[in-house]
Amino acid sequence: MVPPRGTLPQGTAKVRAVRAMFDTVAPRYDLVNRLMTFGLDRRWRRATVGALALHPGARVLDLGCGTGDLCDECRAALYAPVGVDLSLGMLRHAHGGAPLVQGDALCLPFPSASFHGAVSGFALRNFAALPPLFAELARVLRPGGRVALLDVATPTNPLMRAGHRVWFEHAVPRIGGALSDRAAYRYLPASVAYLPPAPDMLGELQSAGFERAQRRPLSGGITQLITATRETP
User: Using CB atoms within 10 A of its CB, is residue 189 exposed (0-12), middle (13-18) or buried (19+)?
Assistant: First the structure.
């Protein structure tokens, strides 16, 4: 049974727990990702980068970049990615050659208006809070810049929802526990409780200075893609 939100760490305790967890799972993170998504994570990341629709050479920030999968997709799309992640362990296992920075996404070490776009892959629920994250994104993006934020979701179709629950809450922790760290992959389904309802999340983006905020379900609703555009003066 997935623990309720009240049992999950909050604030600075969450930051410490997330950093330690990803340091631990870093060596086999890519392998477990491929297995537990049947390779669909690659398709979702391509859709995420494709949703930016920026010009070649655009500078794109990858928040919670992990081992660099989204950075690789950005490079394939002829963008210039920069990755930032809280976990030094994940950055040490990164691939692809994009510039990487260890840092907190709620206090980004970049000048204002320094990026044309930003992406994240399955990271929203791992940040300490979303409103300050969206405010930082608004700060570092140029007017007209795009964000594409990928994360897990719960299908609305009852049959899909039931099957997804069995897989996500029972099979995934077993796979992760066998190949990596059981506690980390028990946290994964539990951490969905951190995500606010889609209308609230879109509203938080708009309050932070974004427009045309939209949500698109992927693969029957087991994941979601949140997109928005930085307001222009």
Answer: buried
43-47, 161-165, 169-173: range with highest mean pLDDT: 43-47
| Residue 102 contacts residue 65 (beta carbons within 8 Å) | no
Q: DSSP code of 2?
A: P
Q: For the chain, how many structural domains are there in total? A: 1
The pLDDT of residue 5: 42
Which domain, by its residues, includes 23?
5-230
Looking at residue 24, which CATH number applies to its domain? 3.40.50.150
C-alpha 136/C-alpha 147 separation (Å) is 12
Is residue 36 scored above 90 in pLDDT?
Answer: no
Q: Tens of pLDDT along 101-137?
A: 999 999 999 999 999 999 999 999 999 999 999 999 9
pLDDT tens, position by position, 202-228 = 999 999 999 999 999 999 999 999 999
Residue 194 near residue 5, CB atoms below 8 Å: yes
